[in-house]
Amino acid sequence: MFNGNVLRDALLSAANHLSNHRKQVDDLNVFPVPDGDTGSNMSLTISNAARELEKLQDETAGKIAAVNAAALLRGARGNSGVITSLLFRGFAKGIGQEENVTAENLANAFTLGVEAAYKAVMKPTEGTILTVARVAGEYASAARDEGKDALAVFEAALTGANAALAQTPELLPVLKKAGVVDAGGQGFVLILEGMLSVFRDGVIIAAERVESEPTVEETETSRNAAGEFETEITFTYCTEFIVNRNAECGKEPQELRSFLESIGDCVVVVDDEEIIKVHVHTDHPGNAIETALGFGQLVHLKIENMRDQHERAKHDAENAKKAAPKTADRAEVIESVEPTKEVGFVSVCAGAGITEVFRDLGVDEIVSGGQTMNPSTDDILRAVERTPASTVFVLPNNKNIIMAAEQTIPISSRKVIVLHTKTIPQGISAMLAFDPETGNEENAIAMQKATESVATGSITFAARDSDFEGHKIKKGELLALNNGKLSFVETDLEHTVLKLVKQMVKRDSQFMNVFYGEDISEEQAAALEEQLNAKYGNRMEITMVNGGQPIYYFLISVE
Fold first, then answer.
1. Is residue 464 part of a domain?
2. Is pLDDT larger for residue 519 or for residue 79?
3. Which residue in 21, 183, 346, 432 is a FRET match for 170, CA 20 to 30 A apart?
């Protein structure tokens, strides 16, 4: 078995080992676009936890595991970082409040970690870090069942992880074609190797270089903010359902809305020709259901007791405070500003010009980030808490930031709605679709729908040599992406823009916005604008904006 000090040292060793091989993991990314790569995101995530662990001495294994999990959550960057944090959140549950790591709780820790990660991913893909962690857990459980000790159980987990990692190319054709294993899975193996160095040999692997600091220098353990704030609950039951409309009933959805407003509040009734989506807070959910049956059949019915939820949240918050680390130099607690309005907005973006656009559209807080610099959950949480609103919409504007943004939902003091905006143009379209006269849920639906009508093109450079989807790519060549997918490879920038725009423009296209980056001169932008207007100006409104964004020479939206 291993005590708390040994577990702490093992996790510090893991952080150093991953940091030392960070570029190796980055280079496994098949898609050559410069991004907040897997190795960087996982390393920055676990390094955030290491800073907290260094403060602890002579604590139980359970305490070490809990502090590690909380710091990982707050520091999680990118999808790979979030999944890593979820694996260790489950790991902490498996260790529980135990004094030592044993064969039994270690095997349980692997199992619960895998369960937590799989549940959080909407469509789990085999051949990724999830597979590697799952097989590691299976090997660990098998060793435990054979009566092996804690060290042998951990060694078995690493054996299973390596076996699964080697098989990832067989599960994902894109990996096999590129001749590489999964980057996230490799990162997880490196973490286990770093830990084993301490468990087996008592050696903390030393860091070979100093890592760049995340945006937020200090972190704190997770808190249950919902339980720490008193909330006036007027009605007890949050009631939601969908009505499959009966065309023969002859009733209008407005009738249902009027009735629901008479028995509760927070009423949202959104309808189309086939369904009516309903949300209401009421003391009489049965009456809401009975009346709704007059409009058609009910599906996806959900009723939650909000008073009970709040009491449980308070109980959890009190327990969390009792269990909080007692180190003298704990990180500063994030303070929330007082809400002065109903709705606010947080957007992730980079570039002075793009930032100004989002500010003009009403965004309250900007989180600096995007490609190559995915912000952490903590970065986004701080922006949410600085937003003076009861409900905050978050626009990640990058598919690799969505999961980190969603981790703020249970730990924020206000309601957070994360829109799945994957590009800057999608974020702008979502903001334009916001209607202050309608409810939050209606706006969430409308804003998300607005992102579907905009096509996004982007031009960047290849960060490494690659053979991707039939394209032989050399480092430094221009990459043209159409809605996130590699369209073609070029060497002439002007020709690349015109060719990509030609692919994007449709017969009914009306608007084109071109954001040029920090590496594009005003003269280059003006010359390109002249060519675009000559070709499309008679049928489209074309706007050229100095976005100032890094990495991407041009971001193009067509609607």
1. yes
2. 519
3. 21
